Amino acid sequence: MNDLLKKNEPWVTTVLLPNRRAGLFLKHYLSKRVHGPFLLPRILTLEEWIKEIYLNHTDSPKEFIDEYDQAWIIFEAYKSLVEKNGARPPLWDDFFPWAMRIQRLFEELDLELTDPKNIEYPPTETLSRVAISILERLGDLYGIFHNLLEERGLITYSRLFYEVARTPSSFLQHENPENFLIVGFYALTNAEDQVFRWLFDNGARIYWHSETDPLPELYRRWKENWKVAINEVECDSCKEESPTLSFFEAHDLHAELKELKKGLSKIDDFEPDRCAVVPLLNTSLIPLLHHLPDVPVNLTMGYPLNLTGPYTFIKLLMNIVSGLVESKFHLKDLIEFLRGPYTDYPGLVDALREYGAPFVTKEELIQIANRLGIKKEILLLIEEILIPFETARSTKDLCLALNGVISYLKSRLLPDENDENIESNSSDLLKLDLSVLMVLEENVLPILENGFFSHVPMTTRGLFRFFEDISSSIRIPFEGEPLSGIQVMGLLETRLINFEEIFFIDVNEGVFPGSEEVDPILPYGMRIVLGLPDRYREELILKYHFERLIKGSKVTHLMWQYQTNKASNNELEAKKVRSRFIEKLIWEIEKKEAKPLSPNERVKFSRVDLPLNGIFSEAALKKDEEHLRVLRTRLGKISPTALELYLTCPKKFYFEKILGLSPGKVPEEIDHGAIGTAVHKALERYYRELTVSKAYIKKDELDIDRLFLFFKEILQGEEFFQHLSSERRYLVFKGAYFRLKKFIECQPNYTEIQALEKVLKKRLSIYDDFSIELFGIADRIDKRDQHFLILDYKTGYVEEINGLKLMNFNPSALEATFNEDSLLEFREQIGHIQLPFYNYLFCTEKQGDFKQVWHHTTAAYVDLRKTGKEQFLIKPDKLGEEWGEWLKADFIEGIKFLIKHILHSPYWYPATDPLSCRWCDYRDGCKHS
């Protein structure tokens, strides 16, 4: 700014900046330095300047096109290449995602001044067939694409920059480089490098925002490539002392925001460079706004369109249309849509839940609405909203359908359009929703209506995917005074601006820097082959802006989350840890102070205060005397399924087994439970027929067609089957035949069937005055080579189990108290009950005839879902005396402990496995979920 003001005619100067935000701050600082009228210099971003010189100094400028029209022309180019080779070209629907990736690749190639060649031998082991086809034709595709642009009088910004950079003297002949100040650029593309070098060689001045010792890596490369000297600018306002850093480790986002609010509440000066909040995750933006103190705020970050309410409404609408079967709505999708905030139709969701079938026609929906007195509203919803989406066959059709949605939402959000005070009376959420609708009208609909592809026929799925792709890159702007109050901005928006105090939130690894995206066209090594910068360069850019912003501050607060999320089966625990950039800052402090950084006023941790008089979840339900009385009467007998239910979630056990609640179910198109029952019944009927005259069964006697016939007869009697389309019936039968065939293929060559659907039971004494009946039903019991085998058919997920590890369970090691900790410990030690439970019951019943039965009996799941194989509790050759003794002693003592826990624990505790809450029928009414 000092150099600018020293010029005799500063208004003839052109200042090139990396973003517009820096230009606003430059004007602000100029207004503070200059008192009175003043002609501003020409302040432009690089993109604005390139376009300006092109439009001002070209007789017949070409039309700029957006990335979606570019994708269409890329599709046309690829299609012509494929047809030329005699192959069948792809459809626009299928190729569109590839075309968008190619568009981004071509843009990058232009900016790096790289003319790609066909790649003769792409790495086939890591790429899909389509990606290989694209790379093999990459040079030809690039050439045809630009030829088509030229023929049609079109141009892209990246191609324009390419042409300027190739011959800067011809494009920039009307510019005076001596009047140029190029400020704040760090990582240059090759095109930027060529243009800036020409300007610099002809008198322009370039300003870096950095310390000189040491230079950031990309500045060092720039200096070495240009072979230039650096003049360090003396700055009166620049400080020599290091900024004060404070670190805060939070257990979740709300703890971060609580600490942020505490820090912001101390600020009473609202100059634009006083304070900045830099959230590194845009999903944190809405919670952040709710935690800001009631002070002036300027928000420059945009909120993602695809995280907003209206977008979710449209997405649910698309799910309904995508799920249509023979013009019938899938009830589950319809209910999810109608439960939203924009479709409040009293009683309709409950009526649909009670409907009973997995699908509902439009006529049936209207009849239900008529009984509820909302026929007019539902007719409007169907005719104005649903049918236009159902019949859309091009993006132009989709534009009309979305127009209908926008009108519908406006009518729901603004029932009184004549209210003149609507803006002042609106809530923040309503204002956000209205902003979303405006962005849809201004940014999305024109692409759908006016694109080169707007009349091209597309499938419903292709149209919806197109809309999702457009929406993923669009942000909702927030209104605010640009130069007033606390600045909430993204990291790259802070370029060239210093703030006295900065608050970073979400400085987590995987967020900053982010996880590397897998590119389906260009794996890591291919970027180097094409002459494109690698991933490391992106990290250097983030590192530079992060460190520069901190060094320009007086105080910087760095916040991150640290927590371990329980992972699903066979996965490592998902951890949130602080960023490597935080680690570097801490290491530098420790190196300087020659001691580890310990918790103090600079290093804080969020704290969760827990009561000392017993810790339990607030979601637990307290038992009373009535509970205990009911328990004694209801627990006359218990199955392994009920015990495993209690072990997984005592609250769910209470709802189902004690209260007898039956959650409302939305009918599914395919009732997998009914299919599983049909499989069980078919196997029982088939083996009963086989064993009428003999118990010994050979594998070569098994007949898949006979078994499948029983299955078909049973399934055809199920109610849900009557509503299935012929295509779905075919798929169900095809899948069942394949799985039953796998089952037969995995059967032993010879077995003796002892029982089918055998009821096993035994009375177990818990106390002198209280006993309970243990019972279960074994699907099949075999005898093979002097060993008994209890089989349990599984048509769902089959859990892995190791009986030898179960023998490590020691009931005496459990706490004597029946609390949540002892239940978790039991689950940790044993976790699996069903198969050893059957094993125990069978042996107690059989031991009168065969004393050694305890040492010769095992159990197995039969995996009917995938392999058809038997998964043994303990393989027969591993059986022995130790196993039988463990069953008779430790295992049954463990069962007694679990029953006593049901009786005497003071609370019905929440789920011991939080992942089970995802699919729980009671989650809507359970605080824990």
TrEMBL record:
Location of the PD-(D/E)XK endonuclease-like domain: 638-927
Pfam families xref list: PDDEXK_1
Name used for this protein in its record: PD-(D/E)XK endonuclease-like domain-containing protein
Source species: Dissulfuribacter thermophilus
InterPro entries (alphabetical): P-loop_NTPase (IPR027417), PDDEXK-like_dom_sf (IPR011604), PDDEXK_AddAB-type (IPR038726)
